[in-house]
Model the fold of this input.
Amino acid sequence: MMPDFNIRVLVPEMFLFLWALFLFLYDLGTKRKNHKQIGYLAMIGVAATGVLLFFFHGGSSFGSMFCSDPLANFFKVIFLGSAFMAIGSSFGVTKEKIKNHRGEFYGLILLSTVGMMFLSSADELISLYVGLELTTVPLFVLAAFYKDDKLSLEAGLKYLIVGAFSSAILLYGISLIYGITGTTDIIEMKINLSLVFLSYGKLGAGFILATVMIIAGIGFKLALVPFHMWAPDVFQGAPTPITALISVGSKAAGVVAFLRIFVNGLIAFADEVMAPLDWGIIVAVLAAAAMVIGNITALRQKNIKRMLAYSSIAQIGYVMIGMVAATEIGVAAVGYYMFIYLFANMGAFAVATIFNDETGSDGIGSYAGLAKSSPIVSAYMAIFLLSLAGIPPLGGFAAKYFVFAAGIQAGYLWLVILGLLTAVVSLYYYANVIKQMYFAKKTSDIKIKPAVSASIVLIMGVVGIILFGVFPEPILDFALEAAKVFAF
Amino acid sequence: MNFPILSYLIFIPLIGFIAVMFLPREKFWTIRWVSAFFSFVPMILSFWLTYDYYFAHSGSAAMVYTEGPLSWIAPINAFYYLGVDGISVPMLFLTGLLSFISIIASFNIAVRVKEYFAFFLLLETGMMGVFCALDFFLFYVFWEVMLVPMYFLIGIWGGPRKEYAAIKFFLYTLFGSIFMLVAILVLYFTSEPHTLNILELIQTAPTTVTHSMQMVCFIFFFVAFAIKVPVWPFHTWLPDAHVEAPTAVSVILAAVLLKMGTYGMLRISWPMFPDMVRYFHIPIAILGLIAIIYGALVSMAQKDLKKLVAYSSVSHMGFCMLALGAYTSVTAIAGCMFQMFSHGLLTGALFLMVGVLYDRAHTREIAAFGGLGAKLPIYTGLMVLFSMGSLGLPGMSGFVSEFMVFVGSFASFKVITAIAVLGVVLTAGYMLRMVQRIFLGEFNAEKWGGLTEMNVREILMVAPLAILTIIVGVYPAPLSNMMRATLENLVNILAR
Done:
């Protein structure tokens, strides 16, 4: 079959790529003077890509290497949203701390976003791998962007080493799959694996090894327990907007990769009849570990970025419940969860960013009395955190409800009960920040006035959480449409 | 009936919440009166609802004033579905009345006024919603929505250990609700077609859900509701939350929030799992008995007046549990409803009275007072009235409810009821001792000479409660007629 070259479906990605190059040049052309202008240009670029995505979607190109299906587009919206919100909250960072490389800073965020978009469209293992690399390589640089800060350099280096290592593992897993099936196309892989199984009655140790390696490779990107060790250090050291981008955009990219490979490609091998060691139970155990370890470790954190790092480790555990359910509602729940997680987590990090811009501190203790001096920002933060904890009517509740519903439907009652119990635990540390802001005696009179761009981000987050929390149907329908891409 | 009264009851406080959010934070009196207005309207609506229900619908057990089911989240079959019957109308009446009274009682809050009243109105929305919702998803959302404002109300305006009390309340209740959520999901997936409609599930669950799953669901619901009631041994959050919370919040906690537990049992657990109620009725009654005796004994030992009232709630709600165990008797279940209603009035009033005293004396230590009777005649009169109501003096609502509980449950549990009657004696013991130590005896003129009598606002806010207590005590027929048909239907389901 002759692959088709349908450039039209690539328009949004190409536009964003060119816009990133334009930002590099623009920053040079304006002698790196204006931090606001270039930030707004980056936001406009992301928004314009979103508009283009609306007009140019559907269809595929280069065989199965690039397909613009509803699943890809659903996640592309999340990636663009996370890039938009990360850029919007970085104006304070680029004003003082990153003076000479603003163009690179914003450009690399866009390039990483392009990588995520490629990844989500890949229905084939090689392009999926390339997309993953395109996503993470700019993030290595961005994590180390505070060149004079040891923690930031440590973050960049750690992320690079772990990232390279996990990519190698993933690639090895992919090559084993190729060895068994003779293809890198996910659909063909699925068919060939079934043929192998039907011919020989088993898949053999190579398949187990491949499964474990791919889970490990993507697990590193997702910071899934036990591959999560890098996350807290990287989250703490990297510039906060980049931390936010890693915790939402790059994780969502990992989620798509997981959905494509496992929930689509290896769906038949999620039960013990077909597979020697089904991946369903492996992932269920990893999800349980993520929820337990993430939530319990977060209890002890005193730094808000580390706390949110562990919280995001735990949040991925909840997402994994939807994945192991591997049903249409499960995939839709995963999509919806990531969508709300985008607003809540990006919002929480945005508050952490502007708080740090003003005070230079990331300590949870330094939030004491914030509700009196900056009531609006505190209210936003409280809403983000309560949504992460899953309190209705905020979006986080509906997200958890859908994921748990999918889990119970698929028979993972133990996992759901564990998830709910750990959700109660998680409330303690989210509420701890709220306690500091609202209940603690005022210690200082820090007044936080978010800039216009940050206000846009915060309002976007709050409106998204409340609106899509009370009326989840539009997003859920979109996610259900995305889930229909997979033949269950 | 085209007028969607239940939606108005739920969402007028929410509109008030939004309105208060937009008021300037330094305009204290505007905020207070706007909040009072937005709780006054629902109160009037709840009175009208009660009146209309009594005359138009009290003869049938059907859900009335229903709204919906309107599709809300189609993929998971969640609907916006409201309706009331004889169980919910008295609760809505109580919620409307006490929310308004509590807002009036909160006029002396002087710090962070705007946030306080905003949270209070949000709380009212949640409470109204719980008593109206007929869809599990909606019910759960309202059930949880209350937690957040409650957490803030205790945590910001509470006493010395407010932070501990607030998070304890939040975690404890959330812990209970997650079990309810699992049970809801299990029921959803076992019903065919999948539904979250409470009324439909009441019809189908007893036959479609397997015995063991019914047991799991019943226990899960029971844990969620028992924490709210609170049933011994899940009561440990209550003394902390009640004592640390500001006066008006204690009132709402005692008068309305605790009722949600028993309401949940009457609305959901009991009709949905009649087999399990039959299976577990003795342990339930024993839990009730333990709560009655334990609560009363612990109340006796309290030195703090507010703690005494708080533990008395444990004891009084124990009567409800005992009555719920006697599922075959309409009298017992009606007694449970009476006890819920009466406890709402009396304990609400007692907390208000404790607050009045605390505002003046800045202590709640029972031993610190003495002989206040001569100094504060009106206060003393009212306090004695409510204490007598609480200990079950004939002619007051407490007597009617306790009498009905005992009469109703005696047929089912002779020994347990006989022991439970002792609880009344113990209640009399600690209430009378409290009255004696505070109002009689030597008056310390040097220390308490400056205490002032209740002002008009304070008298007006407890007066309706006093009047209602006596009306229900002397002439309980309207209340019992209102819920008879509904409760008979419930008992029929249970006896089926």
